[in-house]
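@channel sequence for tomorrow's demo:
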Amino acid sequence: MIKYLLHKFVSRFERQYDYDATYLHELADISPSAFRRFASVQLKLQSKTGAPRDALQAAAIGGALFEDCGPCVQIASDRAVEAGMSAERSE
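structure tokens (generated this afternoon):
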């Protein structure tokens, strides 16, 4: 049952960001506990951390740029705009 819910979560993420997250489906199949740890880190980074919103979002975009992951940069930019950062600042 937990794997089913994890796959639904990943599928929603894929639709929302038009992104192929096959690796997340595989992680959910191989180790649901590792998937939950990975997801919890991602969610904690989105929550209130005390850091200014734009600085936190810029760091996410910068990290994706550094790793040279085009789809990751697009997702980080989209998420920054969703968090309230102006589109001009997230480019």
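heads up for whoever presents: The CA atoms of residues 3 and 29 lie 7 Å apart.
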